[in-house]
Amino acid sequence: MSERRARTAAKNAGRSGWRRALPPSQPRRGQDPVPDEPPPPPAEIDSVVQAALYRDGVRVSSPATLADTYRELREQPSGMAWIGLARPTEAELLSLAGEFGLHPLAVEDAMEAHQRPKLERYGDTLFVVLRAARYLDAQEEVEFGELHVFVGPDFLITVRHGAAPDLSAVRRRMEGTPELLKLGPEAVLYAVLDAVVDDYVPVVTGVQNDIDEIETEVFRGDPAVSRRIYELSREVVEFQRATRPLVGMLHGLMAGFAKYGTDEELQRYLRDVADHVTHTSERVDGFRQALTDILTVNATLVTQQQNAEMRALAEAGFEQNEEIKKISSWAAILFAPTLVGTIYGMNFDHMPELHWMLGYPFAIVLMAVVCTGLYLVFKRRDWL
């Protein structure tokens, strides 16, 4: 017990400046509450998914509350606490910060969520932000979650915002391999990273299938394909933001192997995860380029289709205009004899042609000449 408190006091010696961010009544690890103030209420446990203590890679207890976890960890200085939370309350995070000496900036990030993937070191504590993803077959879309991980000398805390990843499977896997679990919190961090990266595989497969379907729809002329391209492009961009920073993060971890004395076997595992992340990141970059090309092809096909429709409309208009010209030409030709016949049909007594012997043949010849003249004019102008 005294050894545990000594380790805690040494670990918190350099953090007196930021502890003012904690509530004044919050008891610090290894200290009793201030006598003049009432003890703080216990943290809510609704968001504590599971807490467990391990020694030499074997679970030794499963505390029901954060307070029990603190107490049992103090009693077992050589143990390791693995605490899993889902959307924790502010009181729980402040309690964890006071107990394990978490940096207030990291705690603030864990409270607000919506962070980009990153890896930061605060003294002997690592703070890791991961973007998990899973593919929903029914909706044919990608759902993203957020995971914050605090890694210390004797503890690992996961704060999950979203349904992914399934950390219970990670815990079962680690408990099934005690030789790996006994390597400490860094080994658990590797398992969490590996689970997040493995969950990217079905997402990559699902997105690839969506792209294949979109290519088929583009050349089939589906009018709704443009919207689907934009929606998938947005998901790919989000996926790219989740995977690309992981490459640098894992290389940063590998760069500190020698400095922090990382176990050689664990180094091999982390390198394997880094290889998978690099491969996934390259695939996602390829998806974005493919969608850009598909969008360009779709725009070209849409333009061609619009041009074809405009050409068809122009041709239809031209044909309609030709028909109108023909109808107008024949109407003008037939109007001439109608006009002559109408004039001579008035039957006035003093019309000179009414009693003219050649009046009728003259009228017929006049009609024929006018009609023939109009016909020749329209024919020369290609109206007939």
Notable traits:
seven-stranded mixed β-sheet; single chain; alpha+beta; disordered N terminus; rod-shaped; 60% helix; 11 helices; 384 residues
How does this model look, in words?
The chain has helices spanning 2-12, 66-75, 90-100, 104-112, 167-176, 178-181, 185-220, 225-255, 257-260, 264-344, 359-380; strands at 48-55, 58-61, 80-86, 118-122, 125-136, 141-151, 155-161. By secondary structure, it is an alpha+beta fold. It is rod-shaped and about 140 Å long.
| Helix content range | 55-70%
Rg calculated over all Cα atoms: 42 Å
Instruction: Give me the strand/helix succession.
Output: HEEHEHHEEEEHHHHHHH
Distance N to C terminus: 112 Å
Question: What oligomeric arrangement do these chains adopt?
Answer: single chain
Q: Label the overall shape.
A: rod-shaped
Classification by helices and strands: alpha+beta
Mean pLDDT across all residues, rounded? 80
Beta percentage is 5-15%
The biggest beta sheet reads: 7 strands, mixed
User: Largest sheet, order of strands side by side?
Assistant: 2-1-3-7-6-5-4
How many distinct beta strands? 7
Low-confidence stretches: 1-45
Total of DSSP H or I helical runs spanning 4+ residues: 11
